[in-house]
Amino acid sequence: MGTLVCQTCNSTIDHFEDEKVTVLYAKCSCCDENKHAEEV
């Protein structure tokens, strides 16, 4: 089982089937739209 996590807000976006336990980082749609709001 794999988990897709937002790299900006760390919320879980989705789960997917995988042979290993995996965490992949992406951007969720709410963070992608507000990409300039939380520049660190």
Number of helices: 1
| Fraction of residues in β-strands | 35-45%
Distance between the termini: 31 Å
Order of helices and strands: EEEH
The beta-strand count equals 3
InterPro entries: SR1P
Protein name: GapA-binding peptide SR1P
Pfam family, one: SR1P
Essential attributes:
elongated; 12% helix; three-stranded mixed beta sheet; mainly beta; 40 residues; SR1P; GapA-binding peptide SR1P
Summarize the entry for a quick read.
This protein is mainly beta and 40 residues long.
Structure report:
The chain has 40 residues and is mainly beta. The protein has one domain. The protein contains 1 helix and 3 strands. It has one helix spanning 29-33; strands spanning 2-6, 12-16, 22-26. It has a 3-stranded mixed beta sheet with strand order 2-1-3, with no helix packed on it. A hairpin with a 5-residue loop joins strand 1 (2-6) and strand 2 (12-16). The longest helix is centred in the last third of the chain and has 5 residues, at 29-33. The radius of gyration is 12 Å and the shape is elongated. The model has no long low-confidence stretch (mean pLDDT 81). InterPro entries: SR1P. It comes from Neobacillus cucumis.
Question: Could you outline the blueprint of secondary structure elements for this entry?
Answer:
Blueprint lengths: L1 E5 L5 E5 L5 E5 L2 H5 L7
Parallel strand pairs: 1-3
Antiparallel strand pairs: 1-2
